[in-house]
Amino acid sequence: MEEQVEEFGAERVMDNIVDVDFTDKIKVLKGAKGEYKAKAVIVATGASPKLAGCPGEKELTGKGVSYCATCDADFFEDMEVFVIGGGDTAVEEAMFLTKFARKVTIVHRRAELRAAKSIQEKAFKNEKLNFMWNTVIEEIKGDGIVESAVFKNRETGEVTEFVAPEEDGTFGIFVFIGYDPKSALVEGKLELDESGYIPTDDNMKTNVEGVFAAGDIRVKSLRQVVTATADGAIAAVQAEKYIEEHFAE
């Protein structure tokens, strides 16, 4: 892919952009290595899943800890799975996981779910779904793979440890407690929603002429590689059209 774009004259520069100025027709990006001027800019800084924040989580990510049910559900077919979270995404993903796992337990720090009532009704009817209320995950343990997890009840203080069944050897922990949009760079430079995402129209246009956004940084309902790729294709075509229309020689 890199070779293909370079054949068309694209120049690839690796730099850390620390500031941007979108006030004029020519946009200015200030990086650690230098300053760049552009006729159009595509912001694709992405968003990262929020972590549960317990010991062992980072070390065992991809080894039993996941943030994407559609990506990793089939790894836990006929196994036990824990879902951390209580919002719409957590409950919907938990229901999806019941198609693969033999048992799915939603671990929520409160006494009731935050998901929409319609989603809750479906969840409570699902026989494969179980719930641990007022509970947080304290630690994830394992030698190269998830082998056990420690949970704590926030009301009683009771600590319990779930150990992977011997016949399985492991189990899944899916964390769905939200995302952190990487929008600090454009804060005050572009319109952001209350969560920090960039609103765009269907052509990836932001509220600033000549600036487009693509991928997980956008306000959108589905954050996956396939949707980000589609956003990028649309943004690139629209950026080219913008340049042709506004910088005609």
From TrEMBL:
A Pfam family it matches: Pyr_redox_2
GO molecular-function term, one example from the UniProt record: thioredoxin-disulfide reductase (NADPH) activity
Source organism, top-level taxon: Bacteria
InterPro entries per the UniProt record, alphabetical: FAD/NAD-bd_sf (IPR036188), FAD/NAD-binding_dom (IPR023753), Ferredoxin-NADP_redctase_2 (IPR050097), Pyr_nucl-diS_OxRdtase_2_AS (IPR008255)
Gene3D superfamilies from the UniProt entry: FAD/NAD(P)-binding domain
Domain called FAD/NAD(P)-binding: residue spans: 11-232
Broad enzyme group: oxidoreductase
This protein's UniProt keywords: Disulfide bond, FAD, Flavoprotein, Oxidoreductase, Redox-active center
EC code: 1.8.1.9
Protein name from the UniProt record: Thioredoxin reductase TrxB
Organism in which the protein naturally occurs: Peptoclostridium litorale DSM 5388
